[in-house]
Amino acid sequence: MPAGGPAYLRADDQENFDCKVIRVLGLTPHGMKHLRFHSSRNAKNGEEGTFVEFVAENLHLGRIIAKTGYVNGSPGKDFTIHGSRVITENLNNKSRFVLHDGTCRFENVEQFMIKNQQHPIFSAKHPVFRVDRRIKKISTTQIITNKIRSPINENLHVDIENLSIRGNEGVRMEAKALTASVDAFRICICIAARPKLFVVAGNKPCVAPQNFCT
């Protein structure tokens, strides 16, 4: 505090200061330049609420707390989040969704469900996943299931370079017609006094049958 007591801005100085603040922040009756506030009514319960709209092309934020639990993108536009580690956390039950090093992980979650407006599509407590008949092809590196079955009177086609089927209590295949083919072979040679040639499947290592190279 100055020796002569507190200092006050004159009315004209205060007005100039306020104008500069408004100009720098880009303030309008709806908010700031890249930050706007809107009121909306919930169609389900009729309650009015306020939501914040970010209109900048890129935003650098450290933490977002949404009391409603919703963070939405603009209609018709992609909602992209970049970060070395992205964490979505529910403060009520401490459940978290973590994106890190190319993987996604759920923590402190008892149930995971995917659903549309009519009914659940997948539930972790009842893991029955039905493929819609409009989906004709699925690409994946690994499938863990107790059964793979094609629709009635339709073929099940598996196209893969290296197929491994493992069952903890056995593997059973049942079909009216079963066709399996290996399209490539590898030629190998035994390094011995009398070298011998042999072939293996193209996706298998050169391992000769027992006592073949002796």
TrEMBL record:
UniProt keyword Transcription present: no
Keyword Transmembrane in record: yes
Xref: InterPro entries: Sarcoglycan, Sgcb
Keywords (A to Z) from UniProt: Cell membrane, Cytoplasm, Cytoskeleton, Disulfide bond, Glycoprotein, Membrane, Signal-anchor, Transmembrane, Transmembrane helix
Pfam families per the UniProt record, alphabetical: Sarcoglycan_1 (PF04790)
Membrane topology listed for this record: Single-pass type II membrane protein
GO biological process: muscle organ development
Major subcellular site: membrane
GO CC field: cytoskeleton; sarcoglycan complex; sarcolemma
Protein's cellular compartments: Cell membrane, Sarcolemma; Cytoplasm, Cytoskeleton
Assembly and interaction partners: Cross-link to form 2 major subcomplexes: one consisting of SGCB, SGCD and SGCG and the other consisting of SGCB and SGCD. The association between SGCB and SGCG is particularly strong while SGCA is loosely associated with the other sarcoglycans.
Function: Component of the sarcoglycan complex, a subcomplex of the dystrophin-glycoprotein complex which forms a link between the F-actin cytoskeleton and the extracellular matrix.
Family designation: Belongs to the sarcoglycan beta/delta/gamma/zeta family.
Protein name (database record): Beta-sarcoglycan
